[in-house]
Amino acid sequence: MPSDLTVTLAAALIVVAILGYWFGRSGEGPGRLSGRFREFAEGLPRRSEKAVDAYLRAAEKEQSGPDAAFELAAYFRSAGDWRRALQIHESLAVRADLDASDRARAGLEIGDDYRCAGMLDRAADAYAGTAGYAPLRLVALRRRLGICEQLQDWEQAVRVTAQVAREDPEAGRSLRCHYLCQLAENQAQAGGFRQARKLWRRAAREWPACPRPAVDRALLSDDPFGRRLSAAASHPEFAELILAGLVEKSGWTPDALDRELSMLLRDGSGLGSHLAAALLMAPALLCRSSAQCLFSALHESCPAYASAYAAGPPSAFTSQRLNELRGELRKAGGGLPRWRCADCGHEDEAHAWRCVECGGWETARLISPFAPPTA
Ligand SMILES: [Zn+2]
Questions:
Q1: Interval between CA 244 and ligand 1 midpoint (Å)
Q2: DSSP 97
Q3: Could you tell me the distance, in angstroms and rounded to a whole number, from the CA of residue 210 to the centre of ligand 1?
Q4: Cα within 13 Å of Cα(348), Cβ side
Q5: How far apart are the CA of 142 and the centre of ligand 1, in A?
Q6: Which residues, by Cβ under 5 Å, contact ligand 1, an ion?
Q7: 341 C-alpha vs ligand 1 centroid, how far in Å?
Q8: How far is CA 106 from the centre of its chain?
Q9: Per-residue pLDDT of the chain (375 residues; tens, 9 = 90+)
């Protein structure tokens, strides 16, 4: 033990000397030393746990604020060295001279260190512990939800949203709606439609403004096709998604499709331009009614093309002619529709309720050549 003590003391002296030099040279506070900390951290030898330890004790003795230690740990974690970051955060979490907010902040960081290490159970425990400190409770709960999402543990996620809703009712309820829909989706894919319908109803009650329960039910349930198709009229902002997704799977004959679509369009739902845009995604939607929509959309966006095709009624279109028309339409409409995240700008051809880039829920907006501008 004496040799350990000697090494530690020597390391402490070196660190204190370095710190003294920094402070003396610059006069900057400990919170503004990131550049210097980088130098310090890069200069550390490989087996330097003792030096970190010594540094922390020196910092404690000098009663410096914890910011510098947080910064040092952040540097280690960003360099992939979560062990050293964890060592620093654990020592901060038990430092009696720090106030509760700094200790709770250290608790959150411990969770992030474990998450960085792939130890998700321990990370969840650390976040759960931090949730006891009221001012950081919401942040801790959201990070816990992040782990549930990573593990696709939707049941646990639903449970955590009850606590989120106590801090932030809107966030808690809208997230719960999505997690219930995730559960419903799993049920529907496994053929459990009755259970799925229950979950969609529960989700819709939880957050009535969210279109997802209705859209998912239209796309994934075993309801009659006419009813599923009519969901497009109640949620025109998702009409392309519903029409294209549903018709690709329905296996309708062109006549049956024509009947359903003309009924839907006659209801005055203003779906014409949505239907034209959906045609770009789903060629199977081509029938007399949809060709008429295409025709009028084309007439508005590109009259020259429309007049070129005005020679015969849509009912006379051969499939080759319709294919040509679709090609022209794509040119006129500027390519296929895409979904863009309203928060981070990530673009994708496929729709997703959760952005793969930023993790935001319900942020995808359709950029459709023929969709009317949203208010
Ligand atoms: Zn995003």
A1: 23
A2: T
A3: 18
A4: 15
A5: 17
A6: 341, 343-344, 346, 355, 357-358, 360
A7: 5
A8: 25
A9: 445 655 555 555 455 445 444 444 443 344 444 555 555 655 555 445 666 666 666 666 666 678 888 988 998 899 889 999 999 999 999 888 889 999 999 999 999 999 999 999 999 999 999 988 999 999 999 999 999 999 999 999 999 999 999 999 999 999 999 999 999 999 999 999 999 999 999 999 999 999 999 999 999 999 988 888 888 888 888 988 898 888 877 777 778 888 888 888 887 667 887 887 787 777 778 777 887 777 777 777 666 665 655 555 555 666 777 777 777 777 766 667 789 999 999 999 889 999 999 999 999 998 877 655 444
